[in-house]
Amino acid sequence: MDTSLSWSSQLAVAPPHRAPRLPGDKITLPQSALEQLLAAAPIQAVSPQNSRVYTSAFDPFNPHTFAAESQARQHIEQRQQQLPHPLTFRIENPQNGRFMYAGIREFSAEENEVVLSALLQESLEIKDAEFPPQRTGETQTATTDPETPGVIPSDPPSDSGPAVTVHAKQLPKGTYVRLRPLEAGYDPEDWKSLLERHLRENFTTLTTGEILTVPGTRNQSFRFLLDKVYPEGEGICVVDTDLEVDIVALSEEQARETLQKRLEKASRAPGTTSGSSIGGTLSLGENVAAQVLPGEYVDYELRDWNRQDILEVELTTDDPTVCLFVSPLAAHQQSRPRSDVHVWGNFSNESPKQMQFRPTNVALEGAEALYLSVHANPASTSTGSSASSQQTPAQYHLRITVNLTDTNDQTEESHEPGDVQCQNCQQWVPERTLILHENFCLRNNAFCSQCRNVFQKRSPEWQNHWHCPHDSSHGNDAASKESHDAIFHKFHECIDCAVRLEGLPAIAQHRTTVCPGKLILCRFCHLLVPQKSESDPDLHDPEVILSGLTPHELVDGGRTTECHLCNKIIRLRDMATHLRHHDLERLSRPPPRTCLNQNCGRTLANTGNESLGLCNICFGSLYVDTYDPEGKALRRRIERRYLSQMMTGCGKSWCQNEYCKTGKQNMQSTSGTPAAMSVVEIMQLIRPLMGAVNAHPDAPNTAPFYFCTDETGQRRRALAEMIAAESAAVGGKAYDLGWCIAGADATGGDLEKTREWLTKWAPIQGEALQ
């Protein structure tokens, strides 16, 4: 049985202005191509043991029908059409005979068109000039065929490009590929991980004899020739296979040059005398003396400082190519500062380079640290590679201090009362010598009215003096003009979203603010991800702006979870607001009513007597079913209970009541049995307690009681007192005794659960609603 897929079609290449950007070797085909591929797909037999199709009489719990089903399935052969995975195609350019293998991205192209990636167009030698020019304001309208209503004609759009032939051809799984670098000096530490990720994310196939370009960091790239593959042939498939990659130099001369460049790179490694400094952690007031090679960065970070202070960063250097970049480390700002991605930058040629950071700067909100990078601009490409290999590092001094004065007053230039100002050099000179001074000054000096600087007319500074027509920058040599134009007026393309902007400051602001590829630390999935993917809402979406979240966080925060306080199902992005409501509820809760018995650890949720303030357990022995409108009988019962406790005791081994004979014995068991008290002494001790008690049913009592209680209540009371004393001693979270009693009562006297309950539901002493 033939299981190969046979299909081919001639399609027009979609022009770049109507085609989406595709990575690697990916193509996009029209929907009709998928229908044709399914129709041409071979019919393959499916093993009955792997099929889940059963007869209508099948009962897995009936041994007779189960045996009959097994016997019947042995004679069943299911056949169905299946497309191979992955789908691979051979793209041919009939104009020059060149071909490339490609993988499918999706079936969403226009009818009779194919969308090719930039790599495929370059390899097939399809030039932009072959496409018809785009006509502004033209809109394409689909007209239906009168003979077949509702069907769009198969003619390609009028602005389609040259035609290519697309063949469905399955490639074998590759096991080996040999790459030859096109340039000397490639270090495996630089491109090895990049190559693995580039192949995995962008390629389905590899075509023998083609050029593979691997993008690197800092706008560099690595180019390799696909020299040999195994199994041998025109190409291989690199999906779902273990691929061995071998890197071989093009020639012995290139191998020697590569080895020489690696040795030179090792000699200029960070930390060596001829290399850049290592960098590290900075402290306030520390003066760091270091060096940086052209084209490299030295990274520092500041973690400890008072967030209310005004910080000043000062970089002193004699090399005008040295720049300073700073970015905060925060949840929405994770990248190290670079020339094309930074929050603050100083490209000036002046020394020292200074920056000031105030605590009111919104970019510092939530910053865990400050990232600083010192960078030396690379030398001009016109000097050649041999000159760049002999570059010497630039020396600099870096220091971060705290501005205690915060004064911006500038001292005005002072002059003598009889001085006048020269109209040429703007200097103040005595009036009696003004004519002599102006005669000499006009012959020898030139005054620039834009920057108000004075130069000698025959000096090279004046001959090379320049002013930028686009901004207020100026300089005195051609190198500074070239550097200024490269930094501020050269167009740069964002590597994440292909936006083109003028100047490094503009592209850096874009990459640290609205760029979809800006890396953030998602507060919900806790991963380092781009702030916006293709399926996420736009950055200017009203919901994104009002929520203060990035598009990724808005979508990822739509997942739900269970609140650990109330067990409700809440969206992740609403959890902070939901917990804030819990916090407000916690702070606004009234203090709990606890039992006034100083030996009891219960609350008055189910009180036994509202007026006395005793729980059911403590009030139980005082309750009688008699009419007592003024509470006189109740006072006598309270007094008799005190007398009984003091004279005979409760007899409980756990009792620690100081107004109980047994409790006193338990408390003083180590020092012997206490002396017995007479009735007169007992009455003198009870009388102050009874004098404070209000037993009238219409007036609430506030006086404490000292009754013996059960072991559970006493243990909860001891636990609450211990937690209250411990929280007050430690400081920070100090809880009132009433909340500690409520926590112990709610958790059944469990120590850890009581502490957890207090954290969730009890306000801290001195804490108020904000």
Automatic annotation (TrEMBL):
One of its GO terms (biological process) is ubiquitin-dependent protein catabolic process. Keywords: Ubl conjugation pathway. It comes from the Eukaryota. Residues 136-146 have a biased composition (Polar residues). The keyword Acetylation does not apply. The keyword Zinc-finger does not apply. Residues 80-129, 173-248 form the Ubiquitin fusion degradation protein UFD1 N-terminal subdomain domain. Signal peptide: none annotated. Residues 275-402 form the DUF7590 domain. One of its GO terms (cellular component) is VCP-NPL4-UFD1 AAA ATPase complex. Residues 131-164 are annotated as: Disordered. Residues 640-681 form the Ubiquitin-protein ligase E3A N-terminal zinc-binding domain. GO terms for molecular function: polyubiquitin modification-dependent protein binding. Belongs to the UFD1 family. This is Ubiquitin-protein ligase E3A N-terminal zinc-binding domain-containing protein.
